[in-house]
Each structure stands twice: as structure tokens, then as C-alpha cells.
Amino acid sequence: MNRLLFLGWICCCLPASLQAQEAARANGQAGWQDVCYDPHIRSIQLFKGDNEQSLPVLVLNAGEQLRLWFDDLSERRSSLRYTVVHCSADWEEDNLFVTDYLEGFPENRLNDFRHSHITRVNYTHYELQIPNSDVQLKVSGNYLLKVYETDAQTPAFVRGFSVVEPKTAATLRMRGPAVTGEKCLQQLECAVTHPSLEVRNAFRELKVRIAQNGYRLPQQPFPTPTFTDIGRTDYSQADRNWYPGGNEFRFFDTRNLEFSGRGVVQMQADNDGFIYALLQPDAPRNRQYSYERDMNGRFYIDAYRTSDRLTEADYITTVFTLNAPEPFDGEVYVFGSFTGFALHPAFRMEYNASRQAYELNTLVKQGLYNYRYVLLDKQGRIDWAAIEGCYAETENAYYVYVYFRSSHDRYDRLLGFFPTF
Description:
mainly beta; Immunoglobulin-like; 3 domains; five-stranded antiparallel beta sheet
């Protein structure tokens, strides 16, 4: 397979930008979930400091930095730019002026990039730190980082991050199954303390968002207070705050191109040296829970015998197979941090009737990966349990975001962020 044919194969296997954008919006993902519209952009990571597994949340004016990493597989890109937009607690762009939340330049070029080497698939690796000499953030809240080529209204991809000004504290504990005999739902009790904050109406001024494994489950509403007191608001309700436990994430390891890592049946190369990783064929796990330690859906770029894993790790065609005697009533997606924790069209599987299995061949950079299968039914609802099962015993990490907006504020301030169990 020569270079031109290979690039053509990429464009055929991945959806066009407009198709990806329309599908993301149709699935209700364009707001909260991170979305990638450009089929050539891959391996997007946004994290704090040096911890690649951390969520992108900064403390305001604390000298912390976010780091953005991603790869561009296109060859005819002139340049890439970025902008930062302030958002509400619902992740909708608000009406603040740029000068209200940002000091510096609203649009900037991405100048920190390196080209891959000793790889079969060529790419350009980009990096960005925020804040930097061009962009400083002035207020707390949610932000969207948009990376684009010519117009910020048609970005290549969008990633959300948050800035917190710590003025509250929160406790979160799990009560176990929400209903007697319920084997799927995890019920959470949450309380927020705010002794130095004047809260006149907690129902209107406070918003609490609970995110599972770093992403908000679609259609999950803001919890409403059970009762309020001076300096404290409680969100523990017997009939609310239920979250589907899901199942542990699956795992594969493609760090070594010469040997099959965990979750990989075979590594093979075609006549031109392009690598294929055949993953272990999977089966639905909707009958019984089995604990397996995972990374809560995240991934880690790495490759054996490299001096710079970010530019020397190769992209290999990763083959996912999900055995199913009959097709499911809807669309099946591969889901994880490397898909943006979204049902991205590039990771939609096709049913092969002759093999009685769903299949997906897609480019994935070498490393360690968590993933699971998700069903999007014909009504546009995400069914977490149809393929993977759903169990209250599943280990999940939960995160609490506390927003505040008084009658005098023009935006939703983020006054607390708390990683929990």
C-alpha cells in the first residue's frame, strides 16, 4: 500500500468533518462531550501538569497549567490556530466579552509542533500550554478550547476544561443500590458546605454537577437540594442521584509491534510494512459482573524502544471485533477517552452478517487503552447496559463541580471541584 493510497484509505474510513459534526449534534453530544470534527486529528489529550490521567481543571491564579497534546495526520495543512471561549455551567457559550475572561490575544497560532520520525504513518504532533504568554484566564468557570484551521466557527476539534476558585467544600458517598434488588444503579449522597459564601436561594444560585469517570452521563440533570441551612446545602435524596454503574472498561496493549500485548491476538504487517493489531474478539458482558482493574476509560501513549514516545509511537490499524449472533437494535460504538468519551462516527462499528460480528478497523496510536461498547438505539438514546451489562458493584470515579451565580453575577462561577472515590 503506497503513501497516497494509504491517505485515501484514512479519508474513506473516517467521516468527513461536517458528517461528524452533524452526527455529534444529533446524538446530543456537541455540548458537554469533547468533539472532534476533523478525521485527521487523533490522540487528543488535555490534562493538568504532568499527570496525563488527570482532568483538565485549574485553580485560578495558582500558577497551574493545562497541557494539550494531539496529532495531525494530514499532509496539506497550512496552519492551526486556537481560541478560548467562556461557558455556562451547562457548557453553552455565555455572553461575556472576551476581555472579561481573558487577558491576551483571543486567537493564536499553534507554534509548538514536531514531525514524527521512524514511523510508517507520518503525522505532526502538536502541544500547547494554557495559560501562556498569549493567553491568561481571569475568571473561574467552564471554558471551551477550540482548535481550527481558518474559522473558529468550524473547529477541527473542541475540548472543555474548567477553572475553579475554591470557596466551597463537598462530601460525596455512595449508598449502594438505589432500590432493593436493583443491580445496576449507584446512588450518591452529596453535601456542599459554603460558610464564607452568601447563598440567598440555593435552588437558583447553586448548581452541582456530578461527573462519572470525568464525563457527564447524557440526560443526567443537575441535582436539586434536599434542604439548605446556613453555610450548607444537602443534595441527598432517596429517589434521586442515581447513576448507572456500567461495567469495568476493557483493555488492550499495543506498545510492542513485535509481540501481542494484553488484549491483542496478533500483530501483523502488510507488504508495505503497515501494522495491523487484531484485538481479542469480544462478547457481550450483560449476564454477570466480574471485577477488573482499569483506568476508568483513559489511555496512555507509549511504544517500546523509543526515545520520544510522542513522535516515535506509530499509528496502527486496530481491528475491533464484537461477536453478536444477531445485530443489535441500533448503532454500536467503541467508547473511551481516545474517542473523546463520545459516540464519534469514526468509531461506529459495522455488522458483518457472514461473521456474525460487529467490526471496526481504525487507526490508533501505540499505547495502553481502555474501551467499552455502547449502543445508540433508534430513538437516539444511549444504552450502556445492552452490551456491557450494568452493575452497582462497578468501580467508578466520581467528581463534583459546584457552580454559583448570584443575582449580581453575569456568569456561572466554579467555586469547587472535588475528586472523590
